[in-house]
Specification:
- The chain is globular.
- It has 13 helices and 13 strands.
- Helices cover about 30% and strands about 10% of the residues.
- It has a 7-stranded mixed sheet, sandwiched between helices.
- The chain has a domain of about 230 residues: Aspartate Aminotransferase, domain 2, CATH 3.40.640.
- About 50% of the residues are buried.
- Helix 2 packs antiparallel against helix 8, helix 4 crosses helix 7 and helix 8 packs across helix 12.
- It is of the alpha/beta class.
């Protein structure tokens, strides 16, 4: 990919233009058309859904089983199991790894709550680990000191599309004989050293809801090469499959009903869409990668901002670039807050840009004070023999990462003229940052969000 360096004399056209937030002309003027539209739904998707509807097959599993076979072949796993949501699929992965009463799972604090919270329903609890400030994923160097005799699994989240450094994590897991679960909800199709994420740990699960890069509706899927994990995940909530064909001996006596009492099968309207989307995903994903890499190439060397992506030619890629972010370097811009910076970019006409990322989960009340199931004490410690709660200051990188990140526009189509205008908007703000310092109110104390990625500044 072409790399465009920062101009040394700072005499670019953007540097000469007054910032739009201060009354100048906007850097972005072109109509983006369908450059941001996602998912791409065609008549082929519609016909696949109508076929299921017309024959009344919505609650059957014939289409879902075909989708599972095709998905497992695509990702490179032996087994795949469709779920009603990514949340359910991740719970299935936990159950598949025998996470139970009193057990612990290690998880990065900066992620969506569904990477961890379901462990409460299994009687287990979570221990949060620090993140790497460059990848924004769990820091392998922080994992081992979190392991206890109660640790059953590590939840690895390929956060906002960036693959986690898996090799050292797998080494730690094998050393301590614990399982590795990959949450691939943000990184469908991403590669880690040439291998698809989701095929490196013991089991992976992911959301396939309509906002994701691989989007088929409200659905999720689990993949693994381990038969016992697959069958345990199945019997958690797929009663229609829990019968005489089960091979795991410890499960056979309970055939006929789901052990978890859940009904978690994927809706066939979603799996019908999934089969069509899978046919075109690699092609569409390639266009997204071309677009997003072009955007960051245009901004190479611009002060204050840095691409959140793996090194070139490393064999590691961002997949579909779900919810793309950038890294913010306030010290290169005189201490300008990321909130003020993104406000200025937005004023230039950019859409989909917000300061911050997910707030650190270990600080949320549900992991500190909430008694979810009536134990008479916070659920986080209800089944534990020690107080695992992590107070403010315990994970400083996670707690402060919002001021060093921002959500950027997600380009689905390679429209270089559109992408260049967006890059110009960022370059213009960086080159004129001094004009923003006077009225900078700083970042709000609640920068980021526990549910979504965006913060609306006042």
């Amino acid at each position: 990919m072409t790399v465009i360096s920062k101009s040394s004399d700072m005499n670019s056209i953007t540097a000469k233009s007054k910032l739009a937030i201060l009354g100048g002309p906007k850097a972005i003027t072109l109509d983006p058309g369908d450059a941001f539209r996602w998912p791409i739904i065609t008549s082929e998707d519609e016909e696949a859904v109508l076929e299921v509807l017309r024959r009344g097959g919505m609650s059957e599993d014939d289409v879902t089983k075909k989708f599972e076979q095709e998905f497992s072949a695509w990702i490179g796993s032996r087994y795949a199991l469709g779920f009603s949501s990514g949340t359910a699929a991740l719970q299935g992965a936990m159950f598949g790894c025998k996470l139970g009463v009193g057990d612990e799972i290690i998880c990065p604090s900066v992620t969506y709550w569904a990477s961890a919270l379901q462990c409460f329903s299994l009687g287990a609890t979570v221990v949060f680990a620090e993140i790497d400030p460059t990848t924004l994923c769990i820091d392998p160097k922080d994992i081992e000191k979190r392991i206890s005799p109660r640790t059953k699994a590590i939840m690895v989240v390929h956060y906002v599309g960036h693959p986690t450094d898996m090799d050292p994590i797998m080494e730690i897991a094998r050393k301590h004989k614990i399982k590795v679960i990959e949450d691939v909800s943000h990184a469908h199709g991403a590669l880690y050293k040439g291998k698809k994420v989701g095929t490196i740990g013991d089991v992976a699960a992911m959301s396939l809801m309509s906002g994701k890069a691989f989007a088929i509706g409200e659905a999720g899927i689990l993949v693994t090469n381990n038969l016992a994990i697959y069958e345990r995940a199945m019997v958690l909530g797929h009663y229609e499959r829990f019968g005489k064909d089960i091979q795991t001996e410890e499960l056979k006596p309970f055939a006929g009903l789901p052990l978890g009492g859940y009904k978690y099968r994927m809706h066939q309207l979603s799996s019908a869409v999934g089969r069509v989307q899978l046919k075109y995903y690699d092609q569409r994903c390639a266009e997204i990668q071309k677009s997003m890499n072009y955007f960051w190439d245009l901004l190479e060397g611009v002060p204050g901002i840095q691409a959140h992506r793996p090194a070139k030619d490393s064999g590691t890629t961002m997949g579909g670039w779900y919810c793309p972010h950038g890294l913010y370097r306030t010290e290169e811009l005189g201490g300008l807050s990321v909130t003020r910076y993104i406000d200025a970019v937005t004023a230039e006409g950019a859409v989909g840009c917000n300061p911050g990322c997910n707030s650190a989960l270990h600080l949320h009340p549900v992991f500190n004070t909430c008694d979810v199931y009536g134990h008479g004490k916070p659920t986080r410690i209800a089944n534990s023999d020690r107080d695992l709660r992590q107070p403010p200051g315990s994970l400083p990188i996670s707690e402060n990462i919002g001021a060093k990140t921002y959500h950027i526009t997600w380009f689905k189509k390679f429209r270089p003229e559109i992408i260049k205008e967006y890059a110009d908007a960022f370059r213009k703000v960086s080159e004129n940052y001094r004009e923003l310092l006077k009225d900078d109110k700083g970042n709000p104390p609640d920068l980021g969000n526990w549910h979504f990625f965006r913060h609306k500044s006042s």
